[in-house]
Design a protein that fits this description.
Elements lengths: L3 E6 L3 E8 L4 E8 L2 H8 L7 E5 L4 H9 L4 E5 L1 H7 L6 H14 L10 H33 L10 H4 L2 H5 L3 H32 L3 H6 L7 H11 L8 H7 L4 E6 L2 E7 L5 H17 L3 H13 L1 H22 L8 H16 L4 H8 L4 H10 L1
Parallel strand pairs: 1-4, 4-5
Antiparallel strand pairs: 1-2, 2-3, 6-7
Amino acid sequence: MPRYFGLDLHKRYVHGCEWQVDVQKGRHFRFPNTDAGWATFVQQLRADDCVALEVTGNAFTVHDLLSAYAGKVLLANPLELKRLGAGRHTDRVDAERLAKMLALGMVPAVWVPPPAVREVRYLLQYRDRLVRNRRRYLTQAKSVFQRHGLPIPRNVDPRQWLDREEVNRLPQAERVILLSALRQLETVEIEIQAIEAEIARQVADQPAVQLLLTITGVGLLTAATIWAYLGDLRRFRTAKQVTRYAGLDASVHQSGEQDHRGRISRNGSKLLRTAVVEAAHSVARHDQGPLGAFYHRKQRQIGPHKAVVALARKLLIVAWRMLLTGQPYRAAKPTLVVQKQRRLVEVAQAVTDWNAVAVALWPDRLEDRHRRRRVA
C-alpha cells in the first residue's frame, strides 16, 4: 500500500506529515534541512511512496533527490494551495494538507522542467535582476543631474550627454555619488553581456529557438524565454491555457447577472509576460505579416496601448502553435532571419571563461580549500 508524505520546507528544517489512510490521521515528523537529514529521510522511502511539497527556491533540487527513491514526487503550486486553504498557516497544517490532498489526488501540481531548461530559466531570471540594477544605477546618476538643473532626456546615457568639466563643477559629495553610480553601471553592463552570451551558448543548438527567430521582432532573449517557460508544449491543451500561463488573459468578475471582464490578470510568469510584451512593440513596428496587420487593426479599434497587449497575446499563441507544428513564421524575412542566426552565433562565441573567473576569485587550489575546511 502506498504511503503519502507532505513536506513543508524551511531554511533549517523540514516538517513532514505522513497521511495514514486507514485511520484518517497524520503522523508528523521533522528533520534538519541538511545532507545528513535528507539522507536519513530518503532511506525510509519505498518505490510506491508518494511525496508532495510546495514550490520553493530549492524545490527542483529536492524533486531530483526524491525521484530516485519515491514512486511519485509532485511539486504543488503555492498560489493554488493558498486559495484552497482555510486561513491557518502553520507547519503542521501545511504539511498535513499536502499529504491529505496527495492521498485524494487533488494536488495542484506544476510541471518540473528538465535540467537544461532549468538552467536557462535561472540565467534569464538572473539577467532580469541585473537589468533592474542597471536601471537603478542609471536613475541614481540622472537624479544627481536633476538636482543641479541639468535634466537629461529619456533613454539617453548620461556618460554621453555631459562632459567632464560639467561633472567636475558638481559638489564633492554629488560628484562621488555620480561617479560611483556610473562605475557600477559599467560593471553591470559587462555582466549582462556575459550572461547573454551564456544564454546564447545554451540555446544555440535548440531547433525551437531557431524556429522562433523566424518571427519578425523576436530576438534571442525573447525566443529563449518563450522556449524555456513554455517547456513541454503538450501540457497546454488550448490557446487560453497558454495565455493564462503568461498572465495575458482577461480578468473576470462574474456574479449572477454581472459579468465584467477587465484588464489582464497578470497571474502567470512575469518574465515571460514582460518578454512577450516587449517583443510585441518591435513586431508592431517592423512586421508586415499577419501579426503586423492584427496590430494595425486592433489599434484602430481599441487604441495603441491595448493593441500592444492584444498583440502580445496573439504573438504568444502563434509561437506556441509554431512550436507544436514545427512550421516557421509565414511572413518571415529570410535576410533578417539569417542576420539573427549570425548574431546568435557571434554572441555565443563571446562566452566568458567562467573557470578562469573562478580561479581569479579563488586563486588557491580547490583541494587545499577542502583540506583547510576539514581541519577547521
